[in-house]
Design goal:
With 373 residues, the chain is α/β, with parallel strands linked by helices. It folds into two domains: 148 residues, Rossmann fold; 176 residues, 2-Layer Sandwich (Dihydrodipicolinate Reductase, domain 2). Helix content is 32%, strand content 20%. It is built from ten helices and 15 strands. Strands 14-13-12-11-7-10-9-8-15 form a nine-stranded mixed sheet. Strands 3-2-1-4-5-6 form a six-stranded parallel sheet, sandwiched between helices. Helix 4 packs parallel to helix 5, helix 5 runs antiparallel to helix 10 and helix 8 crosses helix 10. The structure holds nicotinamide-adenine-dinucleotide. Nicotinamide-adenine-dinucleotide (NAD) binds next to helix 2. One of its GO terms (molecular function) is nucleotide binding. This is Gfo/Idh/MocA family oxidoreductase. Keywords: Oxidoreductase. It comes from Fibrella aquatilis.
């Protein structure tokens, strides 16, 4: 993981408060023109692909608050949603696509960035098609179901000279950035032990999240990935080995296809260890780090906020932001400035996590310690 620079309230507010008009370049990192920059508002146009819960309840409302990007288009297979969204968000008909007409987005100068918000198994196809259409891409987490898919997505973006980001919104969230700093800069001494868990009780058993072919797995793929990220970003290290265990199912009929609860443990090069739980049957949301000279924690640690934190010295006080707006603005600000996106939110980072997700399943299935280094 890339080192986190010290992040005070002042620096953070300064960075997100910068005017959208202070655009230093009219080309992207690879020297290609960015279409929306010719408009008056200097905001990148984002098209959301898949208008489900996350697009509807988080991303579209957040895009009403962003300074460096705007909701410019939609891709949906449901005509009624197209009508509702075009009216609600004033989206012109020419910026509305379905899954068949999607590739025509190549001819649309209003769209700079395609944001893929589909079930996990569909991420690879739509990211690759978006890159082939000459657009920058943001892909939701988990980036894909297999490492091979992730590589194909990275290759497609590279071939198109476009950038690929993953929806790692917490990297732009101040409480999270603070625990990254505390851990990676060893403010309480070296991190010795991390407890990182994310779990909730899932509803509708017929949804795609309960189908292995669409989700890639159960709770681990969906929210366990936050615990993986948490252990990695507070230690600032990559795990060298993993052990894991499935918990016996308490609702075997409901969880026919995917795991209900899973536990895993990472070992890190420094000797630090982490333990994690992810589940679809009960809730927990906590990131705790015990260090040589103290401790720190976030609880809640991974949801939409407000997050809450404390250390062995007292409460963590940071500004509360809209995670999705901060994330999309952070990505688009860099794209507008012609910068290469930070490592910790790119396709390479998404691929690292997918590799770990697969290793955790392998460890749980075989009962063996899986070496990662
Ligand atoms: P959702 O089920 O609410 O929405 C999925 C969308 O995909 C729907 O609009 C649906 O119509 C569409 N779709 C197209 N083809 C489909 C098919 N064959 N089967 C099912 N749906 C199909 O899901 P969601 O909660 O919006 O999640 C979408 C993605 O966003 C997932 O990858 C998820 O992990 C991610 N997500 C991320 C966060 C975050 O905090 N970063 C939060 C929620 C979801």
């Amino acid at each position: 993981m890339s080192p986190i620079t010290s992040l005070s309230r002042r620096h953070f507010l300064a960075s997100i408060g910068a005017s959208a008009l202070t655009v230093p370049s009219l080309t992207d990192a690879l020297g290609q023109p960015l279409s929306s920059q010719t408009g008056q508002d200097k905001k990148l146009g984002i098209a959301l692909v898949g208008l489900g819960s996350y697009s509807k309840n988080q991303l579209a409302p957040a895009l009403q608050q962003t300074q460096h990007c705007r909701l410019a288009g939609i891709v949906t297979g449901t005509p009624a949603k197209a009508t509702e969204w075009t009216q609600k968000y004033n989206i012109p008909a020419k910026n509305v696509y379905d899954y068949k007409t999607f590739d025509r987005i190549i001819d649309n100068p209003d769209i700079d960035v395609v944001y893929v918000v589909l079930p996990n198994s569909m991420h690879a196809e739509y990211v690759i098609r978006a890159a082939q259409a000459g657009k920058h891409v943001i892909c939701e987490k988990p980036m894909a179901i297999t490492e091979k898919e992730c590589q194909a997505m990275i290759d497609a973006a590279r071939k198109a000279n476009k950038q690929l980001a993953v929806g790692y919104r917490l990297h732009y969230e101040p409480f999270t950035q603070e625990v990254m700093r505390l851990g990676q800069q060893k403010v309480f001494g070296p991190v010795k032990f991390v407890e990182a868990s994310d779990a909730f009780r899932i509803g509708d058993p017929s949804q795609w999240r309960m189908k292995k072919s669409m989700a890639g797995g159960g709770a681990l793929m969906d929210v366990g990935i936050y615990a993986i990220q948490g252990a990695r970003y507070v230690t600032g290290e990559e795990p060298v080995s993993v052990t894991a265990q499935f918990s016996p199912k308490t609702e075997p009929e409901k969880f026919k296809d995917v795991e209900e609860t899973i536990f895993w443990q990472f070992r890190f090069p420094s000797g630090a260890v982490s333990t994690s739980t992810s589940s679809y049957t009960a809730g927990v949301e906590r990131l705790y780090a015990s260090c040589e000279k103290g401790w720190f924690e976030l609880a809640p640690a991974f949801g939409y906020g407000p997050l809450k934190g404390r250390t062995s010295k007292g409460p963590i006080e940071m500004p509360v932001v809209n995670h999705q707006a901060a994330h999309m603005d952070g990505v688009c600000k860099d794209l507008l400035a012609g910068k290469t996106l930070p490592n910790h939110i790119t396709g390479e980072e998404g691929k690292r996590d997918v590799r770990l997700l697969q290793a955790i399943y392998q460890a749980a299935e075989t009962g063996r310690t899986i070496k990662l280094a």
